[in-house]
Specification:
Elements (H helix, E strand, L loop, with lengths): L6 E5 L4 H17 L2 E8 L3 H4 L5 H22 L7 E7 L2 H11 L4 E5 L14 H9 L4 E5 L7
Parallel strand pairs: 1-2, 1-4, 2-3, 4-5
InterPro entries: Rossmann-like_a/b/a_fold (IPR014729), Universal_stress_UspA (IPR006015), UspA (IPR006016)
Organism: Fervidicoccus fontis
Pfam family, one: Usp
Length: about 150
């Protein structure tokens, strides 16, 4: 019988919700012997400022990305998973997560849900998770619930 989830992609940004998503993916990976692919997507700073960014700012961004990936490694180390890959991508988070999942022929994408404030809180998912649901045609998507940050 074929493993239902051979390759799992996890969107991870270090938030409480993404940590829960990674934990769920690790549980599945442990159960099914899946390969995990943890993806951190950094939105390029020039998207916000519209002009070239000094190297020092880019260096700070890379340092922050490394710290976030270290958080993911600490979580995954608590599980018996043979193959975990960590990737830092630059671009629009939902697009990069979907591109990665498509490129590696993933069977499942796991992402956390961000809280929405106001009247629509119970109706809307976070923009990244909503976009992934809309973009995903042939890949299952698991969206973990929002949890209040504890850090």
């Amino acid at each position: 019988m074929k493993n239902i989830y051979e390759k799992i992609v996890i969107g991870f940004d270090g938030s409480a919700s993404s940590r829960l998503a990674l934990q769920k993916a690790c549980e599945l990976g442990e159960r099914f012997g899946s390969e995990l692919n943890v993806v951190l997507v950094i939105e390029p700073l020039d998207v916000y400022y519209g002009e070239p960014i000094p190297d020092v700012e880019i260096s700070k961004q890379k340092e922050a990305a490394n710290m976030i990936i270290e958080k993911a490694k600490k979580i995954a180390a608590n599980y018996k998973i043979k193959n975990v890959n960590y990737m830092v991508k630059y671009g629009v988070p939902a697009n990069e997560i979907m591109k990665t999942a498509t490129d590696i022929k993933a069977d499942l994408i796991v992402v956390g849900r961000k809280s929405k404030k106001g009247l629509l809180e119970k109706v809307l998912l976070g923009s990244v998770s909503q976009s992934i649901v809309n973009l995903s045609k042939d890949i299952d998507v698991l969206i973990t619930p929002y949890i209040e940050p504890t850090d």
